Every structure is written in C-alpha cells, then in structure tokens.
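Revision sheet: structure tokens.
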Amino acid sequence: MGKTNSSAPFYEREYGYAKETNQYFPLLEITIGSNKSRKIILALADTGCTSCIHFCKSYIEKEGLVLGKKINKEPIPVSVADGHIINADLYETTCEIDGNRQKIIVSVIDPEKFFEEEETKIETVEPLIGRGVLDNFDVMFKGKKKRILLFHSK
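Predicted:
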C-alpha cells in the first residue's frame, strides 16, 4: 500500500480468527446506525470491489440494527463478490471508526431475493466494509503479524 502520510496509526487491530475455517480475517470494529440506536459491530475490511458497507438482511435482524432512513422504494440489484446479483435496500446512516464519523449509504442484501432466479441458497455473510469508507484513510495490512492499521491521509 505504500508509505502513509502520518507516522502513527489512529486505529490498529489484530485480525479476527474463524474457528470454522481455521483462518484469520482483517476485521474492523465500527459503530453503525442512526443517532438514537448506534451499535458496535465487526466488519470485514474489503479494499476490493465492495463499494461501501454491505449487510445481509438476516444479520440486521439478528443484531437488531437500526440503520436509519431507507432511500429506495424498489429493491436495487447489486453485484456481490461471487458474481451473483442480489436485490438490496439502501439506507443512509453513519459509520464511526475510532472517533472518525461519516455519513454513508449502506446496502442490505436479501440472499433469498436474487435478481434472477437462482437455486443457490446463501444464509448470511459477515458485514463487509469497503472502499466508500476505507478510501478516506491509508490502510495497511500486516499479514505476518495479522494486524490491520488505519492512518489519517493528508
């Protein structure tokens, strides 16, 4: 990722460990939701194709998240990393990482509502935090040390 513009990260976290797959993942602790019902969650850092933050509808329901104002009337087709096109609803909300707060648009995908009829059954995925948020910072992955660091860009 190259050199950062500040000498010390404002955020550093050890990767999360998934026992089921025996793998480590770069998870960020973020605060998400409307002003009255903000909640701290873990989201997988995706500096690839994820535009902002994707949630699975079942995760929203399980965690009881209140994201804020829904901004679409009809479901919007979104492409997910495995190539499927799934219907989603978009919400305007806030995201905070270690005191750095910003308004964002998040998509809530419903794996049971593929844009085209599919036979594949997806239960849920962890929240993905993508470039719409991470592009505001310099991001460093320390693979051998299993850590993710965020720096303020200048």
